[in-house]
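All the exercises in this workshop are built on plain-text protein records. There is nothing in a record beyond a sequence line and a structure line. A learned vocabulary of local backbone shapes supplies the integers on the structure line. The question running through the whole workshop is how a given chain folds. Here is such a record, shown just as it appears in the course material:

***
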Amino acid sequence: MSPKKATLDKDLDKILRLETATKILSSGLVAHTSALLFLITAGFIGAFFTGVETEKAIIVFAAILGGYMALNIGANDVANNVGPAVGSKAMSIFAALLMAAVFESAGALLAGGDVVSTISKGIIDPELVPNNKMFINAMMAALMAAAVWVNLATVLGAPVSTTHAVVGGVMGAGIAAVGFQLVNWNMMAAIAASWVISPVLGGIIAALFLAFIKVNLIYKEDKILAANRWIPVLVAIMATAFACYLSVKGLKRIWKPDFEIVLFIGLVTFIIVWSIMTPIIKRQSQGMENRNRSLRVLFKIPLICSAALLSFAHGANDVANAIGPLAAILHSVEMGAVTAKALIPNWVMIIGAFGISLGLFLYGPKLIRMVGNQITKMNPMRAYCVALSAAITVILASWLGLPVSSTHIAVGAVFGVGFFREYFIQNSKLRRNFVSKSAATGTKQTKPYSRDDVKYRKLVRRSHFLTIVAAWIITVPAAALLSALIFLGLNSFH
């Protein structure tokens, strides 16, 4: 019998304790109690920081609704950011939760402003609302309907779009309040177009990254040499995109750089990150076998970095879903009238950011496992492509001020990776030649599927594809109908 390894046992015990703590935290009683305490705190924050003495009850109720929506965003939407990393076994659920919470909050607080303005004033025309009370009721109804719908979807295990829910809620309440003429149909058309374009774009970008990795790393004779050449470049590209975005969006309140300066910042970031990553990857790859398994290990650092970037971008983009209507309500109460532009206090941003992070910890593990494991099989290389593609697409959308669905983008990227793998297996001469050569030399690094197996091999679960698309389609009308009913109920009491 081999002697007991004390160090290994201690490490395993730590991991087991972390996983156990995560399960306990997300269990029913603890999760619901923690969520309730947060909502009570959000109400107190709203009461304390608001600058009005009259109508304070409205602010308190709106703050609670904003916190409730933020919890649901964390429970449902954030799974798309870290699910691939967890599914590929690059990160434990606990580590993914912690990382996502930090970067979600940072994205919401540093770069969440532009999309919030679109949600609060772009979907409906406030000037057509007859009075301030009706506008407040409409925003209340939209926030409540969206939160309830996303909560129901989370319980059922469906990764729906919280952006769809909020936009549908605002639209439904607006139509119930005034009529179809209240809706800014040009804005709605742009948003609807982005819902179609964004998952397709996410899938295409993810497929292109995976194609690049297959051609330049996986099917190269010397995989370790190729990894030393290209992995630092891929990480540097990701860091460059993040630096350019942060310089334009995150620091806009104190500094507005010219386009040339942003490009310079990107170039400097690329050089610095490439210089740092090159020796790290070289040192990490020393002594590794010339196998795909080694590439998976080397891609863990890029995957974790890209998942962090996606969490930041998601926080910037989706905090609007929680606090956009809340900001509109607050501004209307303070000013006593409906206006076209709403300023967002820091306490409102904090409720949104912290609520998303808390919802992720309390209710996120269920959907993280679904997104990471059940749509298509993940490894660190594929998950990296998904995370980086989704991050770039969300960043572009947030830059343009469009409230696109991060759920659509991330899931579109997952499907893009899966469908590309199906196409590549069936049609790639490079793969066939590599498999034949490996078989001839006795180094079988890639599984040689038969012709019939290749023809009928499906790497994406079609049932999940149909279920998710159906959920996307039904979310907007369902949230709109629910919001209209809630608005009519609220309006009848005032």
Q: What stands out?
A: The two ends are 78 Å apart (CA to CA).
